[in-house]
Amino acid sequence: MKIIDGKETARRIKAEIAEEVKKLTEAGERPPYLSAILVGHDGGSESYMANKVKACEECGFDSDLIRFDDDVTEERLLEEIKRLNEDPKVDGFIVQLPLPAHIDDQKVIEAIDYRKDVDGFHPVNVGRLSIGLPGFRSATPAGIMDLLERYGIETKGKHAVVLGRSNIVGKPIATLLMQKSNPGDCTVTVCHSSTKNIKEICREADIIVAALGRPGFVTEDMVKEGAVVIDVGTTRVPDASRKSGFRLCGDVDFEKVAPKCSYITPVPGGVGPMTICSLMKNTLMARKGDYFN
Ligand code: GUN
Fold first, then answer.
1. Mapped to the 3 state alphabet, what secondary structure does the chain carry?
2. Of all atoms in ligand 1, which is nearest to the CA of residue 275?
3. Backbone angles phi, psi at 188, to 5 degrees
4. Which of 151, 141, 91 is nearest to 274 (CA)?
5. Which residues are catalytic?
6. Ligand 1 pocket by Cβ (under 6 Å)
7. Most Cβ neighbours (<10 Å): which of 117, 206, 208, 264?
8. How far is the CA of 140 from the centre of ligand 1 (A)?
9. 109 Cβ partners below 8 Å, 6+ apart?
10. 75-130: per-residue pLDDT in tens?
11. Which regions in the chain score pLDDT beneath 70?
12. Among 42, 46, 49, 94, which residue has the most ligand 1 atoms within 8 Å of its CB, making it the best to mutate?
């Protein structure tokens, strides 16, 4: 059994990006510029944001964080998005989700210029991904594909089972895994809250991607000997013994499942650090204008 080290892989990818940015700036070009909008003070979102700002520094990007209070109107937020769409110094930007209930997430996503949509959430980028055209890929699925590639994990002809059908992870990872590419070329089954026989389906899987947000959902009786298990779960579970008061819990019962796997990602330190890396890669692509110009 091999543990997939997302933290170390992410560190290497960020070093590669920094190297490319150095070449750009040495050639007299400006570095990539990422803006991020954060509404409110949700603990998880605050911590994602801090990590994104840190990653920008590590990669040599310029960045800024635009904050709004919880009670910002949808109209004001859309106005800010329009400003960022039109600002030539901003190569890409993200609006941290989830947004407060009075704001329509989808309306916000569709207001973003797809050429600056480095989260890969705009319907143009989702559509391009689904028909195999270049474009910005949703960061977590792109990070998972990078891990499969860098660890040389065979995917062609394998049965991949995706648990979860979210627009951010489940749907796009299923699309990428079924694409005729390497990694890819899998036969994909997507399971969700109405799926019957999830255990039986998982037992048939060569690759399991767990993205349900249900701590410890994948147990050892669901995993075939030698399977590859990718854990996308990051639920905050209260833990009085930690200084933060919580610990991050994956969707997989790691202790029991790991011995059966050929490869497995831990939580934390698996998929999480790769997500931010993909955002950095997308921002570099936005700077270079390779996808759409
Ligand atoms: N919330 C959880 N993950 C993400 C992400 O990748 N991007 C944005 N914008 N919000 C998120």
1. CEECCHHHHHHHHHHHHHHHHHHHHHCCCCCCEEEEEEECCCHHHHHHHHHHHHHHHHHCCEEEEEEECCCCCHHHHHHHHHHHHHCCCCCEEEECCCCCCCCCHHHHHHHCCHHHECCCCCHHHHHHHHCCCCCCCCHHHHHHHHHHHHCCCCCCCCEEEEECCCCCCHHHHHHHHHCCCCCCCCEEEEECCCCCCHHHHHHCCCEEEECCCCCCCECHHHCCCCCEEEECCCEEEECCCCCCCEEEECCECHHHHHHHCCEECCCCCCHHHHHHHHHHHHHHHHHHCCCCC
2. 6
3. -115, 135
4. 141
5. 52, 96, 119
6. 94-97, 119, 139, 275
7. 208
8. 9
9. 95, 117, 121, 122, 123
10. 999 999 999 999 999 999 999 999 999 999 999 999 999 999 999 999 999 999 99
11. none
12. 94
Token pair 């995993």 in the structure block, residue: 223
What per-residue confidence (pLDDT) applies to 43? 87
Q: In the numeric block, which tokens belong to residue 170?
A: 């489940």
Q: For residue 65, which of 85, 51, 86, 44 has the smallest C-alpha distance?
A: 51
